[in-house]
Design brief:
single chain, seven-stranded mixed β-sheet
Amino acid sequence: MEYLNKFLRLKHHLVLMLAILFLSSFASFDAEAQRIIELKSYLESQKFSSSDPFMDLLYGSNGIIEIRDGQLILPKAPSPKNIILSGSAVSILTEETPEFASVEFIQIKLGDGVSSFSLDFGVLPSLSALKYILVTSTEPISASQISQMLTGFEQTEILIFYQISRPG
């Protein structure tokens, strides 16, 4: 009888440990839920038409804010949808800027001596409409490297893309 009680307690502990392990794997999966996708693969898998809103954001000229040498260059069109900037200028995104409120797409360029940046979603007060971030690099780059540069995006619906763009 004593062996049976020990066996049942051991079995109970084993089931409890397995349940904790199972639940902790979900918790770590949720923390890593940030979606970082190679742009080319995404475009091939989605089969977009040229009139698709995403394609218009990616390739269109629907009001682009450029940030060059630390200066905002605003488009003439109201409600710009895109921001293009180098990785060295991402700190500008943390400023309260009314023109950023309509931005859905940010393109961050790495190269010319800039190989990384750091951006925390929690300090982007003006980017309430943001849906996509594209990181382009002149050097090979991976999803894990991008993940280290972007923090706080795990619990958002923002899609993050990367692309290697060799100067031609």
